[in-house]
Write a structure and sequence with these properties.
alpha+beta, 4-stranded mixed β-sheet, 3-stranded antiparallel β-sheet, 7 strands, elongated
């Protein structure tokens, strides 16, 4: 039963925990969380979190994937109500703009040491367990500078990255023949594109 002093959204969704979960997932549609992480973030008891996760998963509004022996939950952006929920829990425009600016300046800084070797870069929002890559780096890696750079980026990001380094010639050829790998990269959720030579799209 919803308490009398519950917020309008809690009354709408019938549960404080459910409301917090929906807000967490649809304010952060590109992120995934495991159960204990969720309980810390939304400050709710693990039993109520598990119960509501089962409810939301059963109707398909969220999805789950197992990665490194942990079950991760995220918003199912293919659900018919996903767009409406995203609008309902939308981050304030100013916050979204600031977040985008921060990400952009971060990648500008990351690329600076290898700028003359990079022809293009695609960074995706791959969630744990999802097929695909985190980074496609197009450029000259004959001296392995890009390989070493990618390892540095991994350390800065604090997580292992699935990345591919491809020569400019190889990339342009694959793009021209609509290579399956390149097509699948473009179908992913892309967070950043560094394209000084205008070769990515």
């Amino acid at each position: 039963m919803v308490k009398e002093n519950a917020s309008p959204l809690e009354r709408l969704f019938g549960s404080k925990t459910r409301t917090k979960l929906l807000r967490l997932f649809f304010e952060n549609p590109n992120k995934s969380y495991y159960v204990r992480e969720i309980t810390r973030v939304i400050d709710e008891q693990i039993n109520s979190v598990r119960r509501e996760l089962l409810n939301l998963d059963s109707i398909g509004i969220i999805r789950n994937e197992t990665y490194d022996n942990k079950v991760y939950y995220s918003a199912n952006m293919k659900h018919p109500y996903a767009r409406a929920l995203s609008e309902l829990f939308k981050v304030k425009i100013g916050e979204a703009v600031r977040d985008k600016d921060v990400r952009k300046s971060t990648w500008d800084e990351y690329v600076k040491p290898v700028r003359k070797y990079v022809s293009g870069l695609i960074v995706t929002n791959r969630v744990p367990g999802q097929d695909g890559i985190d980074m496609l780096i197009v450029g000259d890696d004959k001296t392995k500078k890009l390989t070493r750079w990618a390892e540095v980026v991994e350390k800065k990001q604090g997580k292992p990255l699935n990345y591919v380094i491809m020569s400019l010639e190889d990339y342009l050829y694959r793009k021209s023949v609509r290579d399956k790998f390149i097509t699948e990269v473009f179908e992913m959720d892309i967070s950043e594109i560094y394209d000084p030579e205008k070769i990515i799209k």
